[in-house]
Amino acid sequence: MKNKWSFIFLVCFSFCFVQSSVFGYSSDTLVVYVDGKQAPVLTVQKGVVSLYATSIQEAVVQEIHGNLYTTNTIETKRFFISNELSTEEITPSNYKSLIIKYLPNAPYLHKKLGKLGFRYENVSQMIEFYNKFRVNEQNNRIVHSDK
After folding, report:
1. Which residues have a Cβ under 8 Å from the Cβ of 56 and sit 6 or more positions away?
2. Quick check: 120 and 110 in contact, CB under 8 A?
3. What is the model's pLDDT at position 7?
């Protein structure tokens, strides 16, 4: 039940942030709850489609002679893709379907997903390219409507 409410809060809070960022009222840092823990989310790419990242530190606990000890911490990066309608966590296992969902006007990119340069580690560059493409497309519409 706790994870359900954390997820609902994350989605609602992210939706409010995305709405405010569209109208220019946002800061570069957002705090959300991920797995029940408060985590700042930084903007990686901002535009029609945005990408946010957070780092979560988890303790590694080992049992030694019946006692539990924290041996070190592991930092995990998590990413979230967003548009004006929704925000979702993007992972290596779901990035292809989310890229198709959030970047619908890029069939050439859809065909390249999974190939060199179009893998999970390249999501930021794909979103940056898409946002530039959308801005250029909108600018071309304005120029052509003025003629």
Report:
1. 34, 35, 37, 39, 75, 76, 78
2. no
3. 39
